[in-house]
Amino acid sequence: MTTQVPPSPAVPAPGAPARRRLPAHSSPLRLAGALAQLAALGVVGPILAGAIGLLLGLGVGLLPVLAIGVVFLLGLVYLLFAIGWLETARIDGLYDAGLPALRPRRMSRRTFGGFLAMVWHQFIDAPMWRAIANLAIATILGWITLWLFQTLVSSVALAFAPLYAPDGVAGFLGFDVITGWAPLVGILTFLASAAALVGIALLHGVLARVIVIPTREAQLVEQARVSDVQRAGAIRASEVERTRIERDLHDGVQPRLVSVGMTLGLAQQKLEEDPDGARALIEEAHTSTKAAITELRQLARGIHASVLDDRGLDAALSALAGRSHIPVRLDVRLNGRCSRDAEAAVYFAIAESLTNAAKHSRASECRVTVRVRDDGTLWARVEDNGLGGARVLPGGGLDGISNRVLAARGAVRLDSPLGGPTALEVSVPCAS
Before 394, cis peptide (omega within 30)? Predict the structure, then answer.
């Protein structure tokens, strides 16, 4: 079974700017970059369109031969995704718009139906199609750009026509121009072509803003939606944590302390009549008191590990692995500290995963991997070789992990087929 809480990288943190927008007046460098890219798209765009048409034709034509046709149609879907990903990256790099990279869809469950659902949702992905639509328009603008570049070069040549066409007539774009008028026509055509190229570059930026980059209103709506989800996750995580603390106190520490009180009461009654028996009861109460103190320390450590603040996530996880009831292979590679909330969320997820593995999975070992990715995300994976079949149940440990990570603006992915292994992946923005 695979359970995934999708991330929302497109939405900035509450209180942060919604997203950097295209500048009101494009710089000359940005205009030049847009023209260069449009010229390249004028050449590459038709090739991509031909590849799409070829895969579509082969897929539909060979659909009666089910396996072959489906393979071509599957290739078409992921070619469209690759094109959309590249176009999104191109627009983001050109205009510094802060666009999130397109991400491939993942299976919600490991079945054939789950695979078909994944492919279908990938095919109807709205950001992908917006990027493809922008690429199609940019390809048309690229053809116009190439023609305008040709006109620009020809107009320069026409302006110097009296030097190389002394017979009185010069050719220009299929027309004959009298040599005496050639400099004037060449200069005017050059200015008109240059102005048209600037207009094409500006139009490309405006269309990219309309098609690919969401409006500010859409960003604010999405930000409000994700903030509501994060707030609900934080509330739910606090409820689950409070319930866990109450359960641990009621089932563990409280009965032990009651037993200590009763044992001391019996010792007090026997103090004069049976000093040796009273001494034994006091020793028993002392042992129970130390056990209660140990349980309280473990409970406090479950709420928040002090070593996490003092020495960081690497040291905290090393201590956690040392206390684990099953062997843990720890692979942590961090080049610095992340925010307190991010480290606490990842630590809690790993600690709860190791506890679940020890209690329910019958695993003989666990592997914990922690990295800071290039996009500034603190990523962790916990994998055990147990029986699998883990599910997110309301109030359970996995539910607490999901809510706590969601409250930190992160994402959780659980992959636990029957028979194992179980793998839990957590991604939290390092600055959350």
Answer: no
The rounded distance, in Å, linking the Cα atoms of 331 and 328 is 10
Confidence of residue 144 (pLDDT cuts 50, 70, 90): very high
Residue among 428, 420, 328 nearest 377 (CA): 428
Please tell me the pTM assigned to this model: 0.55
Per-residue pLDDT reduced to its tens digit, 161-219: 777 766 666 666 666 667 667 778 778 888 998 899 999 999 998 888 888 876 555 55
Q: Does the CA dihedral 200-205-211-212 come out positive or negative?
A: positive
Measured CA to CA, the distance from residue 204 to residue 214 in angstroms comes to 16
SS3 content of the chain, % helix, strand, coil (to 5): 65, 10, 25
> How many angstroms separate the Cα of 45 from the Cα of each of 26, 42, 49, 144, 309?
24, 6, 6, 13, 53
Neighbours of 31 (CB within 10 A): 17
Which residue did the predictor score with more confidence, 36 or 24? 36
Task: Report all structural domains of the chain as residue ranges with CATH numbers, in order of start.
Answer: 20-213 (no CATH), 233-429 (3.30.565.10)
The residue among 317, 424, 327 whose CA lies nearest residue 380 is 424
What is the dihedral angle through the alpha carbons of 183, 187, 188, 193, rounded to the nearest 10 degrees?
140
Taking the alpha carbons at both ends of the chain, their separation in whole angstroms is 29
Question: What token pair was written down for 289?
Answer: 């008191």
